[in-house]
Design a protein that fits this description.
290 residues; alpha/beta; Arc Repressor Mutant, subunit A; D-Maltodextrin-Binding Protein, domain 2; 3 domains; 3-stranded antiparallel sheet; 22% strand; flat; transcription regulation
Length: 290
């Protein structure tokens, strides 16, 4: 059979599910279909592409080199397809008779860059015909995924924690980092701390945020949202490292101590490369003028 250079979205969804689960039964359940048609679809995809994507034996399913490539490329393609649909729906709302003004979704790390964000929203709202801005708080590294799959049109990103690869961006500000501690802890009385000071403190492990769905190893609690983190710090169960601007959300039960040797955090406004939205361009202009 002659090989082809195109893959249908449905085929990509099927393959990515199998590649992530490495189990046809679980993948079929996740997709809401029966297992036999899923197996046939993957076999047909392999024949059409002329490559083996999955190695199957009694021990289970494993990805071949070609399968690893298609998993990486397939995720990106599915994100791009979802992004196109989401952004098109948002743009279409302004095209309907009596429709609302342009709307942009701005992803931000919960608790970070609070003062900058406040100034940006106020300055943008004062612009003539400014787009409506929906602020979408997220976890530490979720902004990247939100930009790629279209849940957000722009994001405030923080280097070195966020990757800017594949995005256009403008630098907005640079700041130091702080340790956020329980107010009654002995370290809270210090004028400055080092990273070594807060690593391995008995009974006060560093909080762990997931990056790309995976939590780093360590004894600290796995953090799912800002409220959980704030409460665990107040209860004396963990310590966290944040940009200095995070002082805006601290509770009375918290203390913030500058970290002398922590790398500076650079805040960028980032957006998908090659985006031609005039509403987005206006938001970026406002951000860079602050």
């Amino acid at each position: 059979m002659e090989t082809v250079d195109t893959v249908e979205t449905r085929e990509l969804r099927y393959f990515v599910a199998v590649a992530e689960e490495l189990h046809f039964g679980r993948a079929a359940e996740r997709l809401g279909i029966a297992q036999p048609p899923l197996s046939r679809a993957i076999q047909q995809l392999e024949r059409r592409l002329g490559v083996r994507l999955l190695a199957r034996d009694r021990r289970g399913v494993a990805l071949t080199g070609a399968g690893e490539t298609l998993l990486h490329e397939g995720r990106a393609a599915l994100d791009a397809t979802a992004a196109a649909a989401r952004r098109t729906r948002r743009a279409g709302a302004a095209d309907r008779p009596g429709g609302a003004r342009d709307r942009l979704v701005l992803a931000v790390k919960a608790g970070a860059s609070h003062e900058l964000l406040h100034k940006l929203l106020d300055a943008h709202a004062a612009e003539p015909a400014a787009a409506e801005i929906e602020v979408l708080p997220s976890g530490t590294c979720d902004q990247e995924a939100m930009l790629r799959d279209g849940r957000a049109d722009a994001a405030l990103m923080h280097a070195p924690f966020n990757s800017l690869v594949g995005f256009d961006s403008e630098e907005l500000m640079t700041e130091g980092q702080i340790a956020v501690l329980p107010a009654g802890h002995p370290l809270a009385a210090r004028r400055t701390l080092s990273m070594a000071d807060i690593e391995g403190v008995p009974g006060l492990p560093l909080a762990r945020w997931a990056r790309h769905g995976v939590y780093p190893p360590g004894p600290g609690p796995e953090i799912h949202d800002q409220t959980q983190l704030a409460q665990l710090i107040a209860l004396g169960r963990t310590v966290a490292v944040y940009p200095d601007s995070a002082r805006a959300w601290l509770w009375a039960e918290h203390a913030a101590v500058p970290l002398a040797d922590a790398p500076p955090v650079v805040t960028h406004i980032a957006w998908p490369a090659h985006n031609r939205s005039l509403a987005l361009a206006a938001l970026v202009r406002t951000a860079t003028s602050l």
